[in-house]
Structure formats: C-alpha cells, structure tokens
Amino acid sequence: xxxxxxxxxxxxxxxxxxxxxxxxxxxxxxxxxxxxxxxxxxxxxxxxxxxxxxxxxxxxxxxxxxxxxxxxxxxxxxxxxxxxxxxxxxxxxxxxxxxxxxxxxxxxxxxxxxxxxxxxxxxxxxxxxxxxxxxxxxxxxxxxxxxxxxxxxxxxxxxxxxxxxxxxxxxxxxxxxxxxxxxxxxxxxxxxxxxxxxxxxxxxxxxxxxxxxxxxxxxxxxxxxxxxxxxxxxxxxxxxxxxxxxxxxxxxxxxxxxxxxxxxxxxxxxxxxxxxxxxxxxxxxxxxxxxxxxxxxx
Length: 298
Hints:
Largest sheet: 2 strands, antiparallel
Order of helices and strands: HHHHEEHHHHHHHHHHH
Helix content: over 70%
Number of helices: 15
Distance between the termini: 11 Å
Structural class: mainly alpha
Radius of gyration: 18 Å
Shape: globular
Strand order of the largest sheet: 1-2
C-alpha cells in the first residue's frame, strides 16, 4: 500500500471513530458492566472499513446529509463488532486476542461477552433508527434499515457462519465455500455499500450493481484473509494466525492451494473494479480502497 493511501485511510479512520464514539452508550447504571464490555471491544481499534465503505459510497452518489448516514455508520460497526465478540468465544474460534488486545470473553468472562455481543446487535438497530426524522426522507431511510436488518442475518452473515460451523472437520465443495465467503464476510460489505447508495438516492439498478461489486470484493477480501492466516504473523494481524487450521476450518487456500487463491483474489478484484469503473459516478478514493482491501498484507 502506498504511503499516501495508508495515510488517507488512517485519517478517515480517525474521523469515523469520532463519529462512532458519539453513539456509544454511557457506562452507568446496573447494566454498566455489559456496556463496559461493549465499549471495550468497540474501542479496540481496526480500520473501520465497513463504515468507511458506506460513507464513501454515500459520497459517490452525491449524499450530503450527515444526519442520515452517520447513525448507520455507527450501527454497522456495532454489528461487525458483535460478530467478532461471538466469533472469538470458545464455542466458535476460541481466540484470546483480537486487534492486539485480549478478547471480551477473556476480560469479562464468557457470559458477559455473549451479552455484550447481543447488546451491540440490538443497540445497532436502536442507533440506526436515529436517522428517522419524520419527513419524506424516511422512505429511503426505511429501505436502508431493511438492508441493515437482512444482510447480517440468516440470509447473510449468520447464514454463512452457520455453513462455516457445520463444515468444520470435514471437506466441503467449492460452492459451499463460496457461499460461506459471500455471506459470512461479503454480506456486511454489501450491506455497507448498499446502504450508502440507498441513503444517497441511488437508483434501484445502481444499488444492485453496487451489491454485485461489493460481493466480489467481499470474496476477494476473505480469500486474502485465508492467505494471511497462513502466511502472516500474529504481530502483523493483531490476532492469532493458524486458527483456521487449528479449528479444522475449510479455507480457500486449503481447497484450491496458495497459488490459485492468489490468482482468484486478483480475478475477483479485477471483475469488481471493471464494474465499478462502469458506474456513472466516480470516487477515486473508494476505488483505491476497494483495491487495497484485496491486496493488504495485514
């Protein structure tokens, strides 16, 4: 990644974190322990890629109303973070570190980590609902809200996670693995970019095109994640490497090999960018960001 792009991402990450932090609940009352666990994981860092993708897609289609997009930006990061809390639990990936910090269940215990994940999912919808203002804009806000409720669920992220868990310990075919990647990882990327487009007033056809672009980027992103789990280090990733193999998970690398995996990352990325370049509106930073996601080294 070029230094200038790395700096741009870093600056935008800081801007997004300031937005997200404004929506986090105060750690008070009898429920302050679970709120503390929520906030601990939300403040663990990361690039905030999903809200960044949402915001940049919103900007690309001419969106300007920050009161519309910012609650959804915070909400999708809450949903992403809840999924990480639950993924790290002993019943699933059993990871003790995430982004270089101890995971929620290590710090707060399994029961409180489960509750923190549940709370973030619920609070995400409460947060996104703040975008409703009782005006005609609520029609497009409702369309965005519907995407937010569907893509992380049984027809998206959780559906992919289900197939992933059921596939542990025995080989799966390429169609099953692609279903896992498209949904477990790709669904939230699709969710982010589609919401950005919808809230900016993009046409139905443009939203569908964005969905397909995001799907291919999501697949490339997850294949690259599989590659990094094999080739990177815990220091670079901020989490344990080799956990896929430890948990007997099916990965793109284990199914197709390292060389073919790298070729397919490139192929999916090129296809996505070709479609992106065919859109009537442009966002050079977003294009470069999409390219960076599939070529990252950490």
